Every structure is written in C-alpha cells, then in structure tokens.
C-alpha cells in the first residue's frame, strides 16, 4: 500500500530541525494526554507532538510526532515493556517490548524497530523522543503533581 507521502518527503520532514511554540508542558500523570505544536523553518511546517499515557500501567506511554496539515504520523515511540508488535509483509518480525515506528512509504506506520530506552523513565524519554524527532528547542517539561 502506498503512503500519503513519498519516502523522500517524509525523511525531509523528520530530519527538519524544529522548535516548540509552547514554553512548557505538563507531563501526564497515569492516564492522560498532552499535545503541543512544533514548527520548522517555515511557519507552514507545523507538527503536533503527543505524549499519551496508557492508564494505570505506569510504564506504558506513547510519544508521537505528526504533521498538523494532514495528521500523518511520522514517528511514534511505543514504551511498553510487556508489549508485542508484529511487522507486516514477508518480514513478519515480532518485537517484544519497546519499539519505534518511523514513517515508511510502503507500510506507513505499521513497521517498527526495537528501541532500547536505556533505563530511562517515561519523563526522561520525552527528551530522547524530542531529539530523535529533531526538536532542537523543546518545551520545558514538568511532572504533574498528584494531589
């Protein structure tokens, strides 16, 4: 299945240096989502970053970067030590645990590679994802206080 973007277009968008519009964000506590905008060199190059906590399982989280205009996801990091992902096509590789999806013209976001989180917590992984998605001026990330 052909993707919405060519591989060249997607690679260019992923590699583009980006900066945030927001100065700070609050990292979601347990179940919740935070979204914010980052921009490239031109104002029309806008992206949405999501950090999505998956319920009460403290170790599960998804970080994703997508185009604002088309909503096309370009990169997604799934953090789930107990998760399982099967790649499409003849490859059929099964990945256990944390994995990274990077847009692929043939499979869009269905193909993943293993991702070593290097013993970082979910909060620290924000900055790892920001660097991987080339956000050079990320927002300050604060942990949500539990009352």
Please sum up the structure shown.
14% of the residues lie in helices and 39% in strands. The chain has helices spanning 7-15, 122-132, and strands at 18-20, 24-27, 32-39, 46-53, 61-67, 73-79, 84-86, 94-96, 99-102, 112-114, 135-137, 140-143.
What does this structure look like?
It is built from two helices and twelve strands; from the N terminus they run H-E-E-E-E-E-E-E-E-E-E-H-E-E. It is mainly beta and 147 residues long. A hairpin with a 7-residue loop joins strand 4 and strand 5. The N and C termini lie far apart (48 Å).
Which runs of at least 5 residues are low in confidence (pLDDT < 50)?
A: none
Number of helices: 2
SS-based class: mainly beta
Mean pLDDT: 89
Q: What share of residues are in beta strands?
A: 35-45%
* Rg measurement, Å: 15 Å
| String of helices and strands | HEEEEEEEEEEHEE
> What distance lies between the first and last C-alpha atoms, to the nearest angstrom?
48 Å
Number of strands: 12
Shape: flat
Q: Please estimate the helix content.
A: 10-25%
Biggest sheet overview: 8 strands, mixed
Itemize the secondary structure elements and their pairings:
Elements: H1 7-15, E1 18-20, E2 24-27, E3 32-39, E4 46-53, E5 61-67, E6 73-79, E7 84-86, E8 94-96, E9 99-102, E10 112-114, H2 122-132, E11 135-137, E12 140-143
Parallel strand pairs: 1-11, 2-12
Antiparallel strand pairs: 1-3, 3-4, 4-5, 5-6, 6-9, 7-8, 9-10
Q: Which terms summarize this structure?
A:
single chain; 147 residues; mainly beta; eight-stranded mixed sheet; two-stranded parallel ribbon; 12 strands; flat
